[in-house]
Design a protein that fits this description.
Oligomer: heterotrimer
Radius of gyration of chain C: 24 Å
Chains: A mainly alpha (291), B mainly alpha (296), C alpha/beta (473)
Strand content of chain A: under 5%
Strand content of chain C: 5-15%
Number of strands of chain C: 12
Helix content of chain A: over 70%
Shape of chain C: globular
Largest sheet of chain A: none
């Protein structure tokens, strides 16, 4: 008995180690599988952008093209003024995101910290805007923008999308969780609402700020339908609309070249994301759902 | 927040000033269009004719009498339901995995979230290629398991799953990150207490993790329904509502009627139905959750 | 249009004062004027970004509108619908035109595909800010024509020195309503029969396209005997890819119609049903045919030995196929039948008169034999004038590539499509979806076409009288 006891203990310990080891391996296997599922299609886009039509249509498919066709990128770049599209997209995205952040924080601040009768009803009214699809607003907004003389302008692209409902909602949920005592203290020291917003509330809201900014960035950068509708001239077009210049009416599209142009559209935002990834994910994990 | 007594109008004015930019824009570019479309839904107009003919509720009657329309509603329910369940289950599973102390998890978190930032059109294009039954990557993968590739985008039973897979691929990272946030907000004491009580892994998950995540689940449910019902670009690029209307959701129907067939009145009616549907679904959810919170 | 830019300027000023200050700042940094004010400024030619790379690249950019109009040049805003290779070819022609004379400047603005261009045109009409000239497809132009938004062209053409009689008869007839021309042919196509000569040889078949559908079947059986995996004899396509256009020929070949000239629906009549049943058996009993999302791709990659596709795809198919491509007239059922398709040019009634006349100068230019030949060669669209068809440039093209000649030979035998597909909102998709039910689901044609007919009747209620009034012959 005295001998066997440590023996079983050792056995159990061994078993647990094996089990733990097994579970560990399983977890890593899962992690790799997950990474593959989400990464491979993006890789596939990049790989297709270096193929010619014949290589795209071969089975089994080539993971890495034997002779990478870099000319696809040259062809795509020359098919339309992508330099100009970049400039336009940068301008409309930057101003659009800034507007959303500004309007979103102001509105959310007011909803949380400034008294007003029946403001919850107003808040619900704002949320209802989330449920109006773009196809519903498109035609009336086109007419409005045309009447303002804003067709073919940055204002025409940006202003109709500058209002922010979802972002305001996220900001509000976060602001509700802020410790009231700090605000009260600043208040007693005579700080006005604008100072409270910029000096106290915003510094405490960096994660949610990043989150809302990212969501706005993604939506504005990738917006296709609205910019297509309000611009007629090539020099006012944005990147996603630029992709359309490569499609042939009769369906005879050069897929490799189109994939290269697609990379023009997705690469910058992927790079921004990769660069800011830590902040973004920290921001998202820290602040999205409190309250 | 206590207010300075006697001068509430000052605060009221300030409130209005703070929300004015946002609400003026919402008024011009969201509410006005909605009202305009509500009016259009009572007219017959082809977007080109100078006059709109008032037809009362005819567009609604016509739409609901259309033999294909109940199919459109079913497709919308199928798409939205599958997306909802898919993003909740996959999102939570991913979050649980990515919450483990594993080497490289930060990188994988980034990879999982990356598709969310891509344009829907680009995603639709590359996935159409992946789903090609002859040259597609999916065929290779199915081949490993000895399964033949279905004719994804041509087959009426497979087209919708294909579109759903793509939508989930693009957006699962988002729900995963939100769930991850929820997981990290669960106080450790609760887990410690569960351990003391001798709870197993499953019991802990069932009685601690899930209930603690319910606000997150609620948030995701509401937003996923709102956003997925309005999904457009992936369907536009991959199937255009086909084959045989198998992927025609209310959103695609609305687009097709309005901007391809130029039946602005009918499209407006579809838009109203979509809006009211979303409003009702959301309010019902809020109502249920409030009751539950109230009784517990 | 000075008033327009002024109004725009004012709205910017207003915006800057108001709550939209932020966004309007972005706006004011745009090249100042709107749709047709100052024309394409440096932006289009790449000056604005300033970097050498993008500057150099965009200067070469084939799709940009080229140099700005010179003083005294009348500017015509032209909305076009061609991307890809065809877009490049059109841009070259526009640039050549702008450089060739001093009086007219065409501002070519790409608006997306045919549907998107039509959407934008409808919106622009509602907003009363229309372009002067526009590319409209054989389906989309009807809607604008019914609403009397297009310009009657007879007088303008004659005054501008364009002889309408020079257009290929069947093509100009399609743009003529109640004795007046509204829409002139530009990028016109027809379906064409394609076959894989290499596979035909391997199967011991004659080197020619089958003359009848029964022969397609016989040839198909021979192809099937080759026993190649992944190879089917014949590829149909889906609704998204205009199968209702391709099947229009079949319906006629069996002696039927989608509808009559006065829009009475006849797709549920025996002849049309028989055409559909033949197709169904071809797919489901003979197992020789299937539905390809893009039959060009499947055909060029040797997955289908035969197919029917637009003449507009000839160039791409020839350049991507890894085998010898043969073309032929469409097969016959009881008789021959082949529709026309593609796009033409129209002017907007609301455009200023001097610009309309200026636009005719461009039409005259693209009708020159050398330009017709260039456009046709680049795009695969039909030469739309007789003089160009008979000119040396086109004849050279025929000798160099006999496949082009087949398409042109077929042209005199074509006819405009039935009213159901041309006029009824969603008519193309309604018929096309019905065809999908037959090809994919193996549903009996009679059932399917009955449902399709009902849908078409419902959807045509609003426009039936209008179409009747056209008195189509």
């Amino acid at each position: 008995m005295e001998v066997s006891l440590p023996k079983t203990a050792a056995k159990t310990a061994q078993r647990t180690t094996v089990r733990r080891y097994g579970v560990g391996v399983l977890k890593y296997a899962l992690l790799i599988l997950v990474a593959a599922i989400f990464f491979v299609p993006i890789f596939w886009m990049a790989s297709a952008s270096l193929k010619d039509l014949r290589e795209i249509y071969t089975f089994p498919p080539q993971w890495i093209p034997l002779t990478p066709r870099w000319e696809n990128y040259v062809d795509a770049w020359n098919a339309a003024p992508f330099g100009r599209f970049y400039t336009n997209t940068l301008i409309t995205t930057a101003i659009g995101v800034a507007a959303e952040l500004l309007f979103g924080t102001m509105t959310a601040y007011a909803f949380v910290f400034i008294p007003f009768p029946k403001k919850n009803l107003l808040f619900l009214l704002m949320l209802a805007a989330l449920m109006i699809p773009i196809q519903v607003t498109m035609l009336p907004n086109y007419l409005t923008v045309a009447n303002l003389g804003w067709l073919n302008t940055y204002a025409g692209i940006i202003v109709p999308g500058a209002s922010v409902a979802f972002g305001t909602f996220l900001f509000r949920q976060h602001f509700l969780t802020l410790p009231k005592e700090i605000l009260e203290a600043a208040r007693l020291e005579g700080a006005g609402h604008f100072q409270l917003l910029t000096k106290i509330v915003l510094p405490l809201s960096r994660p949610i700020f990043v989150t809302v900014g990212l969501i706005a960035l993604v939506n504005k950068w990738n917006d296709f339908l609205w910019p297509l509708i309000v611009t007629n001239r090539i020099d006012m077009r944005v990147l996603p609309v630029g992709l359309a210049y490569l499609f042939d009416q009769e369906g005879n599209s050069q897929w490799g070249v189109i994939m290269a142009a697609t990379i023009f559209v997705v690469a910058p935002i992927l790079l921004i994301f990769a660069w800011a990834q830590r902040h973004i994910i920290a921001g998202l994990t820290a602040g999205a759902t409190k309250g | 927040m206590p207010t300075r007594k006697g001068r509430p109008w000052r605060d009221y004015l300030l409130f209005l000033a703070f929300i004015a930019p946002n609400f003026i824009l919402l008024g011009i570019f969201s509410y006005w269009p909605l009202l305009y479309q509500a009016y259009l839904s009572l007219t017959r107009w082809d977007m080109i004719a100078p006059t709109k003919v008032f037809v009362g509720a005819n567009n609604y009657r016509f739409m609901f009498a259309e033999p294909g329309f109940h199919r459109v509603l079913l497709n919308t329910a199928y798409f939205t339901g599958a997306i909802l369940i898919g993003s909740l289950v996959i999102g939570l599973a991913l979050a649980l995995l990515l919450n483990q102390r594993l080497r490289g998890r930060t990188l994988v978190r980034g990879i999982v979230f990356a598709p969310y930032v891509l344009s829907g059109a680009a995603v639709g294009l590359v996935w159409s290629y992946i789903f090609d039954p002859v040259y597609g990557l999916m065929r290779v993968i199915l081949d490993w398991f000895g399964i033949g590739s279905p004719d994804w985008l041509v087959n009426t039973s497979w087209a919708m799953p294909a579109v759903i897979i793509v939508y989930l691929w693009k957006n699962a990272g988002y729900s995963a990150i939100i769930y991850l946030a929820g997981l990290q907000n669960i106080p450790n004491e609760l887990y410690d207490a569960a351990k003391v009580d001798g709870a197993t892994g499953w019991a802990t998950f069932r009685y601690v993790t899930l209930p603690q995540l319910s606000p997150t689940t609620f948030f995701l449910t509401v937003t996923t329904i709102i956003f997925s019902i309005q999904a457009f670009d992936i369907i536009a690029v991959m199937t255009e509502g086909g084959p045989i209307n198998a992927t025609t959701t209310l959103m695609w129907y609305l687009y097709q009627q309005g901007f391809v067939a130029f039946r602005a009145g009918l499209a407006a009616a579809a838009g109203m139905v979509l809006f009211v549907l979303l409003l009702v679904i959301t309010l019902v959810q809020v109502f249920i959750v409030q009751r539950r919170v109230h009784y517990s | 249009m000075a008033g327009f830019s002024r109004r725009q300027f004012l709205s910017f000023t207003g915006g800057a004062i108001g709550v939209l200050a932020l966004a309007a700042c972005g706006g004011s940094s745009t090249p100042t004027t709107g749709t047709s004010g100052g024309g394409t400024t440096g932006g289009a030619t790449g000056g604005t970004t300033g970097t050498t790379v993008s500057g150099a690249a965009t200067a070469r950019a084939t799709q940009s509108s080229g140099p700005a109009p010179q003083a005294g040049q009348k500017k015509v805003t032209f909305w076009s619908a061609f991307g890809g290779k065809n877009g490049e070819a059109l841009t070259k022609m526009v640039n050549d035109f702008n450089g060739s004379q001093q009086t007219v400047f065409i501002d070519n603005q790409f608006q997306g595909n045919y549907d998107e261009t039509a959407q934008k045109l409808a919106a622009s009409i509602a907003a009363r800010q229309v372009p002067d000239m526009v590319v409209l497809s054989e389906v989309t132009w009807n809607r604008f024509s019914l609403n009397k938004t297009l310009q009657e062209l007879d007088g303008l053409l004659t005054k501008g020195g364009v002889d309408p009689k020079d257009y290929v008869d069947s093509l100009i007839a399609e743009g003529t309503r109640q004795g007046k021309i509204w829409w002139v042919p530009f990028a016109r196509s027809t379906p064409l029969f394609y076959y894989n000569r290499t596979l035909f040889k391997e199967a011991g078949l004659e080197d020619r396209a089958p003359k009848t559908w029964e022969e397609v079947r016989t040839f198909g059986l021979a192809i099937q005997k080759l026993g190649k995996p992944d190879l089917k004899a014949y590829a149909f396509t889906n609704a998204k890819n205009f199968n209702a256009w391709h099947f229009q020929g079949n319906v006629w070949q069996w002696g039927g119609n989608y509808s009559t000239k006065s829009l009475d629906i006849t797709i549920d009549q025996p002849a049309a049903i028989e055409a559909g049943e033949w197709l169904r058996k071809f797919v489901h009993e003979d197992k020789l045919a299937y539905m390809a999302p893009d039959q060009s791709i499947d055909f060029s990659n040797g997955l289908a030995a035969m197919t029917q596709q637009s003449t507009g795809s000839l160039g791409t198919i020839l350049s991507t196929a890894k085998f010898d491509v043969g073309t032929g007239l469409l097969p016959e059922g009881q008789k021959f039948g082949c529709p026309t398709g593609g796009a033409g040019l129209a002017l907007l009634a609301a455009a200023p008169d001097d610009r309309k006349q200026a636009a005719i100068e461009f039409i005259k230019f693209v009708n020159k034999p050398e330009n017709v030949a260039y456009w046709s060669k680049q795009s695969g669209y039909m030469p739309s004038t007789k003089s160009a068809r008979d000119a040396a440039e086109m004849q050279q093209q025929f000798t160099a590539n006999p496949n082009y000649k087949v398409a042109v030979d077929q042209l005199p035998k074509t006819q405009p499509q039935d009213t159901a597909r041309l006029f009824i909102p969603n008519g193309d998709q309604t018929i096309g979806t019905g065809l999908e039910r037959i090809i994919v689901n193996n549903e009996p044609t009679a059932t399917v076409f009955k449902a399709v007919a009902e849908q078409l009747k419902r959807d045509s209620q609003d426009i039936k009288d209008q179409v009747k009034d056209l008195g189509l012959a």
